[in-house]
Inverse folding.
C-alpha cells in the first residue's frame, strides 16, 4: 500500500514538470514599423539611411535601426510598452548640396521625434516621423525684370520689378530687408585710364573725398546708387518656403493701366508684351510733389532710404548690380561718399552709401550682353558671373534663377554665387511664378 | 552827356535855317544828261543818279534823261554815280560850271564777268551816311552762291563761312563775340537780343518780328525759345523754324533778286528806328532786266529761280521773281525735308508832271509747302509740320517837288500778314499721370490721363504789321556849307490774330509740355494780346563843307521814338573828314532803341499745380487727385525798350591805283536787353491724407492739419542784359594786279564782348543725403558775367580773267583764336531758402572757410580757349559761257582741313571746321 501512494505522487508531479517546461512566465513581444519622411518642405519624400532610435520610457533601453530606401526601419521583436521615438539624419554640406541643391556652410541636422508611442503586441505599430531641419538661410533674389517692354506697344520701363524668394524650408520675414542698386562705372573705358579708375575700369573709391586711408574702400565695401527698405515691425510680412515677394516700380496692371469712369478699359497697344503687377507685394512711390509717380493704396510702399532720379528706375540695358542685406542699425546712418572723380564737393554733389560686403545676403551682377561688359561691381565671392538679357532692352525679357530641385510644389533655386550659371533668361517675366 | 548832345545837334540843325532866311533865293547849278545802255545805246529809264559827296539823287525819265540840281555855293568838284539794276555802276568826276548847265552822258554796261572789274567782296566805301557801312554788290552775292540773305551776310568781316543750313531759322548777330563752351552758346540770350535788335529793311520796309508769338511760354521754360520738337537723339531735334524773340528768318529773303545789301553796324541814320544792333538794308532789283533762270544744287538742297524785269510803256517796269527750294539734307530723317516757295513782284511807275515822280508797288509772298510728315522709322509715330506763310504789300514813292522847301518827299506804307502754324502729333505711351484743367486759383479735383493716348499740340500765330512813313528832303547852301535836311515821321502797329497755343491740358505731351517744374499747360489765345503801336520822328542834316582838297561831311541826326509809352530821344552823329581824296578820318556816336516784341510783353498766364493727394489703383472712379492751382501773370508792364550806344572812330585810305585800307574801332554798349529772370513762388498749402477707401467710389481726403511749403521758379521777362563790345575791323583791298590778274582782299575783325546779366539763378538742392543740406531747399546765385573774344581774318584772292569771263576766288579764313571766361568767378551763393521758405543770406567768408563751403557753385571750366590757330580754305569758280549762261561751282573746305583736339578729362573730341561741301549753279540769261 505504501509503495503505490509514492508512485502516485510521482505520477502527479510529472505533469508539473512538463507544465513548467511549457509555461514560461515572460513580457509579451511586439513589432514596430517606423517610417521616416521629410516634411512638406521637401515634399514629404521618404528619408533613407536615417538613424531611428526607440527608447523605452520605463526601462530606458534604446534600440536603433536605419531606414531603408523606402524610409522604413522595422523593429522586429521588441518589448511592448511606451517608447519615445527619435529620428536623426546629419548631412554634410556636400551631401546637402547634392540633396537639396543649396550651398550651406555647416552640416545640416534633420531631426524628428514622436513622444510616448505605445507599442502593442499583435499590431503593426506604425510610427510616422517627419524630419525637420534647422537650416538657417535668407531670401534670395529670384527674378530681375529691368529690360522693360516695347517703347511703343508695351509699357516702356514702367513694369520693372525685382522678386525675392524664400529658398529655405522655414518661414522668413521680409520686414526691414534692404534692397540696393549698386553704383559703379557704367561705361566701358577706352584708351588710357583716368586716375580715378582701377585697372579693372571700376571706380577707385579709395580716391573719394573723405575716404579714410585705413579702410579698404574697394575690397571690403560696395556703394549704393539707390537704397530701399521693406517696411514692417518684424513679423508683418512673412514669406513661406517656396513663396516670394515682388517689389514693383509701380504696382498697377500694366497691360490695362487705366479704367475710366465710364468703365472703358485702356490697354497698352500690345498687352501681351507686359505684365500685371497690381498684386505686387510692395511698390516704390516717390512722392516728390511733381506729377511723376502714382501711389496704389492697396500696395504697401517701400521706405526710400536713398533715391536716384524720379522713380525706382533700373537701367534698361542691364548695367546694374543688385544686393539685399539686413542691418541692425539704420542704413541711413552708414557712411557715404561721392564718386572718386568728383573734384570738389558742392551743393549738388551726389553721395553713395558705403555698405560692408560682409552683411550682404545675396548679390546679382547684371550686364548688357556677353560682349558689352562694363567693369564688375561685385567681386568673385559675391557673384563670379553675370546675368543678362540676350535680346536687349525693351524686349520684355527678364532673368530668373534656375530651379535645381523640386520637392513637390516647392522649388529650390540654384545659388552658387555665379549668376552666369545660376540665371537664365525668360521671354516674358512671371511675377510670383516660374 | 546826352542833354548836351541834343542841344548841340539842335543848334547845328537850326543854324542853317536862320541863315537861310537871310539869304536871297537859292541858286543852283544844273547837271543833266542821258543814261544809255552800253551794248544797245538804248536809253535807260529810272536809272538812279547821285552826287556822292552831297547825297543828292534823282532818276532818269523814260527818255533816259536826268536833271540834277546842286546848290550853287556848294562844291564844284563832285562825283556823279549812275546805277541801274543788272548793270555795273559808273562813277565819274564832274566839275560844275557856275550858272550854266553841265552836261554829262553815261553808258552803263551789262554786268558780266567779261568786264574789266568785278567786285566779289564786301566793300566799305566810307561815303555812306553811316561811316562803317559795308556794301555787298550783286557780283559778290552771285559769287557766294547764296540761298538767302543769311548766306550773303557771311561775307561780313568777322563772320565764319559755313555751309548752308536750311534747317531751322537763320538769324544774324552783328559785332558780338558769343561765349561758346563745348559747343553751347552760353550767351544765347544775348545773341537772341542782338538778332532781335537787327532791323531788316527790304526796299525801305522793315520786315520785323515784333508780333511773332510762336514760342513756348517763356514764363514756363525760362527762355524765349522756339517750339521745337525733340527727336530723342535721332538725328537731333527737328527745328520747327520758329524764331520769336529773334530776327526774322533770313531764309524768307531769297538772294536771287537782291541787287545790293548794305549792312550798318555802326551808327545808323536817324531815319531808321526800332533797332539796337544795326540795320541790314536790302535793295532788290527793280527796272528792266533780261530773263534770268537759275538752278542750284548742294548736298541735298536744290533751288530753282526765275526772274524778269519787263519794260512797260512810259518807262515803267514790272519785275517778277520766283524761287523754289527743295531741301532734303538728311534722307534718313524724312521729317527734316521741306519745300519753300517765294514770289515777288515790283511794279515801278513814273507819274506826275514830266514824270518826275516815281512810285513802286511791291507784293511778296512766301510759303512753306510741306504737309505733315511722318518718319516711318520713328517709333513714336510722330507727325509734325511747321507752316510759315507770309504776304506783304508795300508801296513807296518819291515825289520830286523841286521846291525850295522840298526837293523831294518820299513816302511808304504797307502791311504784312503771316500765318504760322506749328503742329505736333504724337502717340503717347506713358504712365498714367494726374492732370488738371483748372483755370482759377484754388483746390480742385483733377483727373488722370489714360497713359496711352494720342495727343496733338498746335501753335497758330497770325502776326499782322501795318506801317507808314513819310519824309521830306530839302537842300540849301549857306556860303561854303551845304545842307541836306531831311525830316520825317513814321508809325507802325503790330498785333497777333492767331488762335494761339492750342493744348488740351488733360492730354499733355508728357515729355515736352506737361508740368515743367510744377507749371501745367493751358491754352493761350494770341488774339487776346493787345497790339502795340510805335511812333517815331526824326530830323537829319547832312552838312558838307569843302575847302581845297579837304572836305568835311557831318551827318547830324536826332530821332524820337515812342515805344510802349516809353520815349527815347536818340542822337545819331556821323562825321567824316577828308584830309585829301586819299585819306579820310571818321567818327560816329549814336543811340538807338529797340521796342520789346509781343512775346516779351505778353508771355501768357502761368498755372502752378501742386499735387496734394494722388491715389490711383487702376480705376479712375476709385482714385483721387487733389490739386491746388495757382494762376500767376508774369507779364512785365514796365518793360523798357532795349538801348544801344555806339562810339566809332575810323580811317579810310585810298590810293589812286586802287589800293584801299579801312580801319574802324568801336565801342558798343547795349543796355536793358530782354531776358528771362527767375522769380520764386512760395505757397503754403494744407496736407491731406486718405480716409479709408470705399470700393466703387473715389476715396475721400481729409486734411491732416499740417501745412507744407511748395516752392517753384518761374520766368519774367525783364531788362536784364548789358553788353559792352569793343572791336577792331581792318579791311585791306588791292586792285587787280595785272601780272597775276588777281586782286586780294583782307578783312580782319577782333571783337571783345563783356556780357553782364542782372538775372538771378537758383539751384535746387539735388542730393537729399548730405546732412549739411537737409535744411536747404534752394540756393540762390547771381548769374556770372562772361567775356568772349574772337579774332578772325578772311583773306580772299580773286583771279579774274575777263577775256575768258572766268573768276576764281580762293577764300581763306584764319581763326586766330577765341577766348572765353567768366569775368568774376560767381561761384559764391547769395543765400538760400529753407524748406520752410525762410531766406538766409550767406556771406562769402562763410563759403570760403566756414560752415557753408559746399554752397560754392561748381564751375566745370572757367576759361575756354581755342587750343591752336587753324584755318580753312574755300574755293569758288564762275565761268560765263558766251552771253547766255554762267556756270558756277563752289567747294567749301576743299582741302578737308579738319584739325582735332581730344580732351582727356572730359573724353570729348572736338573737330574744327565743317565737312567739305560742294555745290554748283547754272544761270541762264536771255
Amino acid at each position: 500500500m505504501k509503495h503505490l501512494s509514492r508512485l502516485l505522487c510521482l505520477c502527479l508531479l510529472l505533469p508539473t514538470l512538463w507544465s513548467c517546461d511549457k509555461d514560461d512566465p515572460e513580457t509579451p513581444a511586439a513589432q514596430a514599423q517606423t517610417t521616416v519622411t521629410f516634411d512638406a518642405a521637401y515634399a514629404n519624400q521618404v528619408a533613407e539611411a536615417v538613424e531611428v532610435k526607440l527608447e523605452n520610457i520605463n526601462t530606458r533601453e534604446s534600440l536603433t535601426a536605419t531606414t531603408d530606401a523606402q524610409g522604413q526601419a522595422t523593429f522586429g521583436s521588441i518589448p511592448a510598452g511606451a517608447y519615445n521615438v527619435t529620428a536623426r539624419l546629419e548631412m554634410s554640406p556636400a551631401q546637402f548640396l547634392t540633396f537639396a541643391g543649396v550651398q550651406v556652410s555647416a552640416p545640416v541636422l534633420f531631426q524628428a521625434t514622436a513622444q510616448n508611442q505605445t507599442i502593442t503586441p499583435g499590431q503593426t505599430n506604425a510610427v510616422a516621423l517627419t524630419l525637420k531641419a534647422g537650416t538657417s538661410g535668407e531670401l534670395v533674389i529670384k527674378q530681375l525684370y529691368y529690360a522693360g517692354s516695347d517703347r511703343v506697344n508695351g509699357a516702356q520701363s514702367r513694369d520693372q520689378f525685382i522678386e525675392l524668394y524664400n529658398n529655405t524650408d522655414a518661414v522668413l520675414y521680409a520686414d526691414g530687408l534692404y534692397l540696393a542698386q549698386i553704383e559703379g562705372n557704367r561705361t566701358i573705358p577706352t584708351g588710357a585710364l583716368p586716375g580715378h579708375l582701377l585697372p579693372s575700369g571700376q571706380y577707385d573709391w579709395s580716391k573719394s573725398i573723405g575716404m579714410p586711408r585705413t579702410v579698404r574702400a574697394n575690397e571690403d565695401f560696395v556703394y549704393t546708387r539707390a537704397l530701399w527698405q521693406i517696411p514692417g515691425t518684424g513679423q508683418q510680412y512673412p514669406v513661406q518656403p517656396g513663396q516670394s515677394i515682388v517689389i514693383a516700380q509701380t504696382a498697377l496692371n500694366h497691360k490695362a493701366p487705366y479704367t475710366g469712369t465710364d468703365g472703358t478699359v485702356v490697354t497698352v497697344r500690345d498687352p501681351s508684351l507686359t505684365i500685371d503687377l497690381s498684386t505686387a507685394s510692395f511698390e516704390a512711390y516717390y512722392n516728390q510733389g511733381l506729377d511723376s509717380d502714382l501711389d496704389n493704396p492697396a500696395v504697401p510702399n517701400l521706405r526710400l532710404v536713398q533715391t536716384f532720379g524720379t522713380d525706382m528706375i533700373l537701367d534698361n540695358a542691364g548695367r546694374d548690380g543688385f544686393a539685399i542685406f539686413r542691418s541692425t542699425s539704420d542704413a541711413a546712418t552708414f557712411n557715404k561718399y561721392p564718386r572718386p572723380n568728383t573734384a570738389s564737393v558742392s551743393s549738388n554733389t551726389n553721395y553713395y552709401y558705403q555698405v560692408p560686403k560682409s552683411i550682404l545676403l545675396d548679390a546679382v551682377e547684371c550686364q548688357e550682353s556677353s560682349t558689352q561688359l562694363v567693369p564688375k561691381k561685385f567681386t568673385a565671392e559675391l557673384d563670379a558671373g553675370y546675368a543678362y538679357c540676350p535680346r536687349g532692352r525693351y524686349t520684355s525679357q527678364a532673368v530668373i534663377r534656375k530651379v535645381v530641385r523640386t520637392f513637390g510644389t516647392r522649388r529650390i533655386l540654384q545659388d552658387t554665387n555665379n549668376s552666369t550659371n545660376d540665371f537664365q533668361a525668360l521671354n516674358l517675366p512671371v511675377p510670383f511664378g516660374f | 552827356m546826352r542833354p548836351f548832345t541834343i542841344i548841340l545837334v539842335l543848334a547845328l540843325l537850326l543854324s542853317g535855317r536862320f541863315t537861310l532866311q537871310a539869304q536871297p533865293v537859292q541858286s543852283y547849278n544844273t547837271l543833266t544828261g542821258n543814261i544809255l545802255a552800253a551794248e544797245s545805246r538804248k536809253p535807260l529809264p529810272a536809272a538812279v543818279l547821285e552826287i556822292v559827296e552831297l547825297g543828292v539823287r534823282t532818276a532818269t525819265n523814260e527818255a533816259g534823261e536826268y536833271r540834277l540840281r546842286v546848290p550853287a555855293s556848294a562844291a564844284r568838284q563832285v562825283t556823279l554815280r549812275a546805277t541801274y539794276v543788272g548793270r555795273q555802276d559808273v562813277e565819274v568826276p564832274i566839275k560844275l560850271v557856275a550858272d550854266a548847265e553841265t552836261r554829262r552822258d553815261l553808258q552803263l554796261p551789262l554786268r558780266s564777268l567779261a568786264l574789266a572789274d568785278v567786285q566779289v567782296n564786301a566793300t566799305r566805301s566810307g561815303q555812306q551816311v553811316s561811316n562803317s557801312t559795308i556794301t555787298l554788290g550783286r557780283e559778290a552775292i552771285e559769287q557766294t552762291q547764296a540761298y538767302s540773305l543769311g548766306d550773303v551776310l557771311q561775307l561780313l568781316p568777322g563772320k565764319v563761312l559755313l555751309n548752308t543750313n536750311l534747317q531751322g531759322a537763320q538769324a544774324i548777330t552783328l559785332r558780338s563775340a558769343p561765349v561758346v563752351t563745348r559747343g553751347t552758346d552760353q550767351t544765347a540770350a544775348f545773341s537772341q537780343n542782338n538778332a532781335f535788335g537787327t532791323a531788316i529793311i527790304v526796299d525801305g520796309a522793315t520786315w520785323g518780328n515784333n508780333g511773332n508769338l510762336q514760342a513756348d511760354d517763356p514764363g514756363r521754360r525760362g527762355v524765349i525759345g522756339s517750339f521745337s520738337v525733340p527727336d530723342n537723339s535721332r538725328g537731333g531735334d527737328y527745328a520747327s523754324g520758329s524764331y520769336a524773340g529773334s530776327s526774322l528768318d533770313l531764309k524768307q529773303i531769297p538772294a536771287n533778286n537782291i541787287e545790293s545789301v548794305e549792312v550798318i553796324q555802326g551808327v545808323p541814320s536817324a531815319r531808321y528806328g526800332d533797332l539796337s544792333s544795326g540795320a541790314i538794308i536790302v535793295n532788290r532789283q527793280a527796272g528792266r532786266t533780261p530773263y534770268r533762270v537759275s538752278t542750284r544744287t548742294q548736298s541735298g538742297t536744290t533751288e530753282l529761280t526765275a526772274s524778269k524785269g519787263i519794260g512797260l510803256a512810259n518807262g515803267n517796269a514790272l519785275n517778277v521773281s520766283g524761287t523754289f527750294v527743295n531741301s532734303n539734307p538728311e534722307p534718313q530723317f524724312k521729317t527734316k525735308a521741306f519745300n519753300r516757295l517765294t514770289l515777288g513782284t515790283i511794279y515801278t511807275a513814273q507819274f506826275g508832271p514830266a514824270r518826275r515822280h516815281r512810285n513802286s508797288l511791291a507784293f511778296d509772298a512766301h510759303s512753306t509747302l510741306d504737309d505733315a510728315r511722318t518718319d516711318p522709322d520713328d517709333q513714336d509715330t510722330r507727325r509734325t509740320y511747321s507752316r510759315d506763310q507770309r504776304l506783304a504789300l508795300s508801296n513807296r514813292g518819291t515825289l520830286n517837288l523841286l521846291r525850295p522847301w522840298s526837293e523831294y518827299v518820299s513816302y511808304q506804307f504797307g502791311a504784312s500778314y503771316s500765318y504760322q502754324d506749328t503742329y505736333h502729333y504724337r502717340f503717347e505711351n506713358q504712365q498714367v499721370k494726374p492732370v488738371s484743367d483748372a483755370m482759377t486759383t484754388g483746390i480742385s479735383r483733377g483727373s488722370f490721363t489714360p497713359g496711352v493716348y494720342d495727343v496733338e499740340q498746335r501753335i497758330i500765330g497770325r502776326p499782322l504789321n501795318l506801317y507808314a512813313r513819310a519824309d521830306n528832303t530839302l537842300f540849301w547852301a549857306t556860303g561854303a556849307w551845304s545842307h541836306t535836311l531831311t525830316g520825317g515821321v513814321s508809325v507802325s502797329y503790330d498785333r497777333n490774330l492767331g488762335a494761339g497755343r492750342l493744348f488740351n491740358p488733360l492730354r499733355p505731351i508728357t515729355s515736352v509740355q506737361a508740368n515743367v517744374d510744377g507749371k501745367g499747360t493751358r491754352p493761350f489765345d494770341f488774339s487776346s494780346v493787345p497790339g502795340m503801336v510805335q511812333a517815331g520822328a526824326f530830323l537829319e542834316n547832312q552838312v558838307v563843307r569843302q575847302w581845297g582838297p579837304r572836305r568835311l561831311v557831318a551827318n547830324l541826326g536826332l530821332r524820337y521814338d515812342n515805344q510802349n509809352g516809353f520815349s527815347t530821344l536818340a542822337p545819331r552823329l556821323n562825321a567824316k573828314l577828308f584830309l585829301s581824296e586819299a585819306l579820310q578820318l571818321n567818327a560816329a556816336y549814336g543811340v538807338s532803341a529797340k521796342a520789346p516784341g509781343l512775346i516779351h510783353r505778353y508771355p501768357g498766364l502761368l498755372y502752378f499745380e501742386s499735387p496734394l493727394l494722388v491715389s490711383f489703383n487702376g480705376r479712375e472712379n476709385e482714385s483721387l487727385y487733389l490739386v491746388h492751382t495757382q494762376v500767376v501773370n508774369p507779364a512785365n508792364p514796365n518793360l523798357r525798350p532795349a538801348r544801344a550806344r555806339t562810339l566809332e572812330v575810323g580811317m579810310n585810305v585810298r590810293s589812286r591805283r586802287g589800293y584801299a585800307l579801312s580801319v574802324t574801332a568801336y565801342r558798343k554798349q547795349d543796355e536793358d536787353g530782354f531776358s528771362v529772370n527767375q522769380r520764386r513762388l512760395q505757397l503754403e498749402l494744407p496736407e491731406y491724407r486718405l480716409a479709408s477707401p470705399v470700393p466703387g467710389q473715389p476715396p475721400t481726403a481729409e486734411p491732416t492739419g499740417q501745412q507744407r511749403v511748395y516752392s517753384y521758379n518761374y520766368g519774367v521777362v525783364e531788362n536784364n542784359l548789358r553788353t559792352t563790345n569793343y572791336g577792331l575791323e581792318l579791311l585791306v583791298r588791292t586792285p587787280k594786279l595785272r601780272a597775276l590778274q588777281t586782286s586780294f582782299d583782307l578783312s580782319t575783325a577782333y571783337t571783345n564782348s563783356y556780357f553782364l546779366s542782372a538775372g538771378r539763378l537758383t539751384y535746387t538742392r539735388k542730393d537729399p543725403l548730405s546732412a549739411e543740406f537737409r535744411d536747404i531747399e534752394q540756393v540762390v546765385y547771381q548769374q556770372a558775367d562772361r567775356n568772349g573774344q574772337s579774332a578772325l581774318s578772311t583773306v580772299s584772292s580773286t583771279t579774274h580773267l575777263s577775256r575768258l569771263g572766268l573768276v576764281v576766288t580762293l577764300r581763306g579764313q584764319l581763326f586766330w583764336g577765341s577766348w572765353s571766361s567768366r569775368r568774376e568767378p560767381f561761384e559764391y551763393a547769395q543765400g538760400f531758402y529753407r524748406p520752410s521758405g525762410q531766406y538766409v543770406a550767406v556771406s562769402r567768408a562763410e563759403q570760403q572757410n566756414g560752415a557753408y563751403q559746399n554752397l560754392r557753385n561748381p564751375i566745370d571750366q572757367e576759361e575756354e580757349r581755342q587750343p591752336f590757330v587753324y584755318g580753312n580754305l574755300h574755293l569758288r569758280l564762275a565761268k560765263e559761257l558766251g552771253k547766255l549762261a554762267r556756270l558756277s561751282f563752289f567747294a567749301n573746305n576743299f582741302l578737308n582741313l579738319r584739325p582735332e583736339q581730344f580732351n582727356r578729362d572730359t573724353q570729348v573730341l572736338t573737330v574744327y571746321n565743317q565737312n567739305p561741301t560742294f555745290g554748283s549753279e547754272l544761270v541762264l540769261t536771255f
Observations:
- The longest helix of chain A spans residues 2-22.
- Helices of chain A lie at 2-22, 93-100, 419-422.
- DSSP finds three helices and 26 strands in chain A.
- The two ends of chain A are 102 Å apart (CA to CA).
